[in-house]
């Protein structure tokens, strides 16, 4: 990939890699969801991201790629994850405009718009024990790194680390949203499956920028 920007092909590769990582970990995600949810997160995400992969060649601009990804996730991923991931990608696509490359700043801005859309849709906040606990610290770390003059590669790496830390921080939390919240205190002691799958977004982007 080119040194310090993300092209349409890079972003398609990001989504392809995300689908692969989800597929490799679908059993694990389902195990996490069976502890505090309804044991479908792995299968749902694997079905949705596999469907996304079949659409990637159709997009001829970044906004089209991201919007199509969002719409595909909404229509193929069941449960609450589909609308939330779908909203994030659709809002991200709406924020980029019809372009072929994104600077790191533009990528950060678009992803943050996506995350804000997800937050509005899910009416969720930090420490509700959701995917937001992985997504928000990561985009904050990414933007901070870029502000400080880090390369795209280094900014993605620090976002990946922040995402993993945010994911792991969900373990002691008591869930305040979704099916896990029905368990009350018994939801503590388990990693949130949505935070786990959201961290794969950064694992996938790390692989793309390293390549
Ligand atoms: Mg579920």
From TrEMBL:
Name of the molecule in the record: Dihydroxyacetone kinase subunit DhaL
Pfam families (alphabetical): Dak2
MF terms in GO: kinase activity
PANTHER family membership: TRIOKINASE/FMN CYCLASE (PTHR28629), TRIOKINASE_FMN CYCLASE (PTHR28629:SF4)
Domain of life assignment: Bacteria
Organism: Tessaracoccus lubricantis
DhaL domain mapped to chain residues: 9-207
Keywords from the named record: Kinase, Transferase
